[in-house]
Amino acid sequence: MTDLDxxxxxxxxxxxxxxxxxxxxxxxxxxxxxxxxxxSEITEDVQxxxxxxxxxxxxxxxxxxxxGLRRLELPDAxxxxxxxxxxxxxxxxxxxLGDTGDSAPSNWEGGLGTDQIHVLVMISAKHREALDAHDxxxxxxxxxxxxxxxxxxxxxxxxxxxxxxxxxTDGFAQPSIEGSGVRSLPGQGAVTKDGGWRPIRAGxxxxxxxxxxxxxxxxxxxxxxACNGSYLVYRKLYQDVAKFRARLTESARLYPGxxxxxxxxxxxxxxxxxxxxxxxxxxxxxIVADEDRNNASRYSADPDGLRCPIGAHVRRVNPRDxxxxxxxxxxxHRLIRRGIPYGPVLPPGAPDDGKDRGVIFITLQxxxxxxxxxxxxxxxxxxxxxxxxxxxxxxxxxxxxxxxATAKKMTVPxxxxxxxxxxxxxxxxxxxxxxxxxxxxxxxxxxxxxGGGAA
Length: 455
What we know:
The chain is α+β, with helices and mostly antiparallel strands. It has helices at 11-14, 32-43, 66-71, 76-80, 84-88, 94-97, 128-145, 223-226, 241-252, 259-267, 285-288, 313-317, 327-331, 368-380, 440-449; strands at residues 21-29, 58-64, 119-125, 148-157, 190-191, 197-198, 230-239, 336-342, 358-365, 410-412, 418-420, 427-437.
């Protein structure tokens, strides 16, 4: 059994805080020595994974881009030890990720995707007043220090009933992590041969611990920097709610099951979160309320996707035990999801109001390439792996809006099957970055090593 060093792991890596609001400050390092002093100071306030006796009103966590680590003048051996995709950054990986057209990095906001973003400061808070107070303390400290500048900021706010802007209840399918101290619920981990579930090995998400292959994940050579760290993917995703609703309503006119069933088929869950695999005919609030059942879906008994389509969003991002996969392959591509909605709700039936809304989408993993990039490009952006040809995920597939001849579809199995399409982009990338999340030991290493202060 893995024994995680929880007091030296940043808290949000291991467990979701379930706070109501979050703030994101994107910093540029202007002076290395002053930045090192600031890192040393703020490390004392970083929320760790150690169990708290009383939930705080707010907490802060830190992450660094490769440009930021380079700006801190870390030893060459450390910098060279980071994986290529992290060193290149998200913008350079745009074609692989399907970030083209309106989602292209040239359209991103706030300096995201450039070498001007060095540090991400994340503030999580119970309410807006606590967020504003913590934000002010941070900005005052930055002003006093003088070594870093805020070049962009953003705020996310949880929506009522844990909904996201398209109207689905979210947050069920988080992987359980071995040694986290958090109860492992059915459906969160890996399927076992006896039909049960076990937690995912910690090394799939946190450096310095054994992964599903029984080995330590690749990491920079300085163990003080790498151990207890993780990689963070940040994406600001605009959701075109009016277009999604109109597309769903129009398509449902031809779908015999009606609009709500088609909405469930697209995602793999009913709007209230009921898994289609467990209740294919209707929402079931008793399942949703039961944490031992609301994520305990399996797909091996539904190989043709008649209950939950093979191309449904939740089945794409976590195929579980569905063929042609074996559990080991799926386990190597799991993602911890964090993040929060942003922007005001568009009332039901209302026309597009032109306001910005969507989700601050965050994943945590030990390998950006094997986990996030693989899932985004192969499981969401294509269908061949699932025997679906070039079908794409309705939500996050890189739909081509410019050429109808190459527009994609989703197949809903049935007698006969229903083809949803041509798909149009309903989620647009507004910006993103790849970050490294050091452990507390890693933050201490950065403070000491910045400017060549450590060998």
